[in-house]
Amino acid sequence: GQYNILDKSAGNIVNHVIFQAPTKLGKGVLVAPTVHGNLLVGPDAEDTDDKENTATTSERIEFIRQASKKTTKKVPFNGTITSFSGLRATPSTGDFIIEESKEVKGFINVAGIESPGLSAAPAIAQYVVDIFKGIEKDLKEKKEFNPIRKPVIKFMALSHEEKAALIKEDPRYGRIVCRCENITEGEIIDAIHRNAGATTVDAIKRRVRPGMGRCQGGFCGPRVMEILARELKMDITEVVKDSKQSYILTEPTKQNKPSEEVLENMKIS
């Protein structure tokens, strides 16, 4: 399914998730405010056998625009900041597949999760735990396990007094890196160094939101790369967008200081 995400200036067009009448392909094109204040419009529904195809097309995006008019007439699509698509496997069973693999002992398949997968996720997790308990009989509860993680600081949600106190304690929270989403250097560094820390540009984007705003990383992207390289002690050319081979930079465009001969030739020319 393909989606449009609109700028926050369009986020108040609707106050609720607006669904259409469902069909065999799904719940139709929805128009919904996001928790961060954007407007989400989509998806379409198109069957494909290509497991890697996450492309967006002008034809299907136009379909979404026209279909959205059934419920919401005045969506300002000129405020679209990005489009994306996703894939999900459709099970032949007509239901979620949650069971131990018949080929690999201890491997539990959780597949074909369609609507309402998000709502069902907590119950699915507990169901998988129960399956695993049935497989492994000698499980022991970890007494020292701490299920509570350190709170994530959202700088812009703090009061003026809280911001001032935090900046006094750690000046990095006073440096705005992403102007669209008002994300600070301190928030990015925290995302890198906490448990299961971010190691790629997109990982930072998903956790803290630099690059999610109107300019889509055009301003903050290079700065995020610099912070990742510095904090992870790697060369900036080693920083990737998401996957292992998604390098953003390949080599410097400006090499070492020119030789004296080159400098002299530059003077002559």
Automatic annotation (TrEMBL):
<feature type="domain" description="BFD-like [2Fe-2S]-binding">
    <location>
        <begin position="176"/>
        <end position="230"/>
    </location>
</feature>
<dbReference type="InterPro" id="IPR041854">
    <property type="entry name" value="BFD-like_2Fe2S-bd_dom_sf"/>
</dbReference>
<dbReference type="InterPro" id="IPR007419">
    <property type="entry name" value="BFD-like_2Fe2S-bd_dom"/>
</dbReference>
<dbReference type="Pfam" id="PF04324">
    <property type="entry name" value="Fer2_BFD"/>
</dbReference>
<dbReference type="InterPro" id="IPR006076">
    <property type="entry name" value="FAD-dep_OxRdtase"/>
</dbReference>
<protein>
    <submittedName>
        <fullName>FAD dependent oxidoreductase</fullName>
    </submittedName>
</protein>
<dbReference type="InterPro" id="IPR052745">
    <property type="entry name" value="G3P_Oxidase/Oxidoreductase"/>
</dbReference>
<dbReference type="Pfam" id="PF01266">
    <property type="entry name" value="DAO"/>
</dbReference>
<feature type="domain" description="FAD dependent oxidoreductase">
    <location>
        <begin position="15"/>
        <end position="130"/>
    </location>
</feature>
